[in-house]
Q: What sequence folds into this?
C-alpha cells in the first residue's frame, strides 16, 4: 500500500501539486486520472522518487520515502516496476537483454535461470519468438508488452504505468489494460496507472483518483463514476456524447 | 547565473559518477563496449588525419626553408616537435570532440528523450555511474590513440619529405632524433589524460542534463562540440604555461 499525505511540488514559482492526500491499495489497479496539465505525471514521478516534493510525505508501507537513506531508497526501487509512456526500452539491447536487465543488475542468478524467467514473463505477456529482435524491429504494442515484462521480471511489489495505452489502437490498448489488471491480481501488487483514457477507467479502474490543476478533486471506483454528481467528474468524464448516454443508461439501471 | 548553474550541475554529475557503483560484471561489459565505440571506432579518422597533418607540416617546413645553410634534417625535427607537442594531442582531441563528443551527447541525449535514463533511475541504478563511468575508463586508453597518432604524424611527414623530394631519408631520420627531450613526451601525454577526461565528461554532461526532443538532442551535440573544444584549448594553454614555461 502507498499512502500520500499533503504532497506539494513546485517548479520555480509555479505550484504543480497543491496538497495531494490519498492512498493506493495493494492488489488493485489504482488510476490517476486528469486532463493534460493536471499534474498526473508529476505526481507519478514524485511517487517513484524521480521528483522530490517540497512538502508532504509518501509512505511505502510504514516508512516515508523522505526518511529513507540511499540504500533504503535503492532497495525500494528494486521493488518497483515501471511502464513508461514510450516503453523506454534500451535500444542498444535486444528484447531478451532488455527483459533480463533487472535480473542482471539485482540478482546473482545464473544465465540459464535468468533466461528461464525471461521466457516465462515474455510468455505471460503473450510474446514469443521475439527474444533476439531489437525494440526498433517490433510494433508499439509489442514494445509496451516487453516493457511490462521487464517491469515484472524481478517480481516487484509496486507497478507504475504512465499512460500505458497512449498511441495504441483501441484493441491493443484494451489488451494492455487487461494485461496490467491480470498481473496486478496475479502478483498481488500495488499498481498505479496514470491515464486520461476513459476506456481504461471503464476497464480497469478499481480505484480512481481525479486530479484537476494539481488538486485531488474526487476519488472512487469505476462504478461510482456513473453515479456521482461531482461536477469535475461529470465535466471530465462526460465530455463526449457517447459517455453521456452510457451514464444515463447506467444511472437508470442503478 | 546560468553558467554557475551549469558548472554546479557538471560537478554534481561528477560526484555521482564516482558514487554507488554498478555491478562489476555489468560494468566490465559496458567498458569493453565503450572501448570499441570510442577508441577502436576512432582509429580510422585518427590515422587519416595524423598521416596527412604530419605530411603537411613536413612540406610547409621544407617550403619555408629558403636558407641553404639550414640543414635538411630540420624538416624531421620540426615535424616531430609540432606533431608531438601540439598536433597529435591537441588537434586530434579537437577532432575527437566532434566525433566522440557528438556521439556521446547524442546517445545519452536520446536516452534522456526516450525516458531510458528515467527507467534506469526508477530501477535504483546510478545512471551517471552506469553511463559515464565506462566512458571515462575507456578514454584512459586515449593516450594510446595519441601515441599512434604521433607515430603516424611523423611517418606521414617522412613520406611527404622523402617521396616529395624535399629531404633524404637519412636527413629526416637524423632530424627526428636531434635534441630529443623526453619531458616533451610527458607533457604531451599528461595533457592527453586531461583532454580525455574532458572528452568523456563534458559531452556526457551535455547529454545527461538536456531537456526536450530530437531537435534539442541536435543542439546539445553542437553545444557539446563547442564547449569541449573550448575547454580543451583553454586547458592546453594553462597546461603549456604550467609545464613548459
A:
Amino acid at each position: 500500500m502507498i499512502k500520500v499525505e499533503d504532497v506539494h511540488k513546485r517548479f520555480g514559482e509555479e505550484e504543480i501539486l497543491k496538497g495531494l492526500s490519498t492512498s493506493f491499495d495493494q492488489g488493485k489497479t489504482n488510476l490517476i486520472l486528469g486532463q493534460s496539465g493536471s499534474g498526473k505525471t508529476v505526481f507519478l514521478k514524485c511517487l517513484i522518487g524521480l521528483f522530490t516534493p517540497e512538502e508532504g510525505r509518501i509512505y511505502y508501507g510504514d516508512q516515508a520515502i523522505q526518511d529513507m537513506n540511499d540504500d533504503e531508497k535503492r532497495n525500494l526501487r528494486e521493488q518497483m516496476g515501471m511502464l513508461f509512456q514510450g516503453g523506454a526500452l534500451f535500444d542498444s539491447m535486444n528484447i531478451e537483454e532488455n527483459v533480463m536487465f533487472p535480473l542482471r543488475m539485482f540478482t546473482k542468478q545464473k544465465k540459464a535461470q535468468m533466461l528461464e524467467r525471461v521466457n516465462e514473463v515474455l510468455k505471460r505477456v503473450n510474446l514469443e519468438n521475439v527474444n533476439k529482435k531489437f525494440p526498433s524491429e517490433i510494433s508499439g504494442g509489442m514494445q509496451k508488452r516487453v516493457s511490462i515484462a521487464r517491469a515484472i521480471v524481478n517480481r516487484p511489489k509496486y507497478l507504475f504505468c504512465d499512460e500505458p495505452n497512449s498511441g495504441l489502437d483501441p484493441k491493443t490498448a484494451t489488451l494492455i489494460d487487461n494485461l496490467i489488471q491480470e498481473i496486478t491480481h496475479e502478483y498481488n501488487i500495488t499498481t498505479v496507472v496514470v491515464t486520461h483514457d476513459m476506456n481504461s477507467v471503464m476497464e480497469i479502474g478499481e480505484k480512481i483518483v481525479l486530479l484537476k490543476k494539481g488538486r485531488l478533486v474526487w476519488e472512487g471506483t469505476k462504478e461510482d463514476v456513473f453515479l456521482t454528481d461531482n461536477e469535475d467528474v461529470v465535466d471530465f468524464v462526460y465530455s463526449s456524447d457517447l459517455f453521456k448516454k452510457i451514464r444515463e443508461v447506467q444511472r437508470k439501471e442503478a | 547565473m546560468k553558467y554557475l548553474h551549469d558548472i554546479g550541475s557538471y560537478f554534481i554529475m561528477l560526484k555521482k559518477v564516482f558514487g554507488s557503483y554498478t555491478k562489476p560484471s555489468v560494468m566490465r561489459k559496458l567498458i569493453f563496449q565503450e572501448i570499441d565505440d570510442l577508441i577502436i571506432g576512432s582509429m580510422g579518422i585518427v590515422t587519416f588525419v595524423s598521416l596527412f597533418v604530419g605530411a603537411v607540416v613536413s612540406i610547409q617546413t621544407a617550403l619555408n626553408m629558403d636558407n641553404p645553410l639550414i640543414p635538411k634534417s630540420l624538416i624531421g625535427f620540426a615535424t616531430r616537435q609540432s606533431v608531438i607537442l601540439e598536433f597529435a594531442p591537441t588537434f586530434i582531441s579537437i577532432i575527437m570532440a566532434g566525433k566522440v563528443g557528438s556521439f556521446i551527447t547524442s546517445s545519452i541525449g536520446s536516452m534522456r528523450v526516450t525516458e531510458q535514463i528515467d527507467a534506469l533511475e526508477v530501477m535504483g541504478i546510478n545512471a551517471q555511474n552506469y553511463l559515464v563511468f565506462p566512458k571515462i575508463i575507456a578514454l584512459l586508453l586515449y593516450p594510446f590513440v595519441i601515441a599512434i597518432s604521433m607515430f603516424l604524424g611523423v611517418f606521414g611527414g617522412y613520406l611527404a619529405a622523402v617521396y616529395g623530394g624535399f629531404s633524404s631519408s637519412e636527413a629526416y631520420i637524423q632530424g627526428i632524433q636531434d635534441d630529443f627531450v623526453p619531458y616533451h613526451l610527458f607533457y604531451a601525454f599528461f595533457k592527453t589524460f586531461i583532454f580525455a577526461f574532458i572528452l568523456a565528461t563534458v559531452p556526457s554532461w551535455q547529454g545527461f542534463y538536456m531537456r526536450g526532443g530530437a531537435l534539442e538532442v541536435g543542439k546539445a551535440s553542437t553545444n557539446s562540440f563547442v564547449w569541449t573544444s573550448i575547454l580543451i584549448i583553454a586547458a592546453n594553454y594553462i597546461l603549456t604555461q604550467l609545464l613548459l614555461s
Notes: The two ends of chain A are 31 Å apart (CA to CA). Chain A has a mean pLDDT of 87. DSSP finds ten helices and ten strands in chain A.
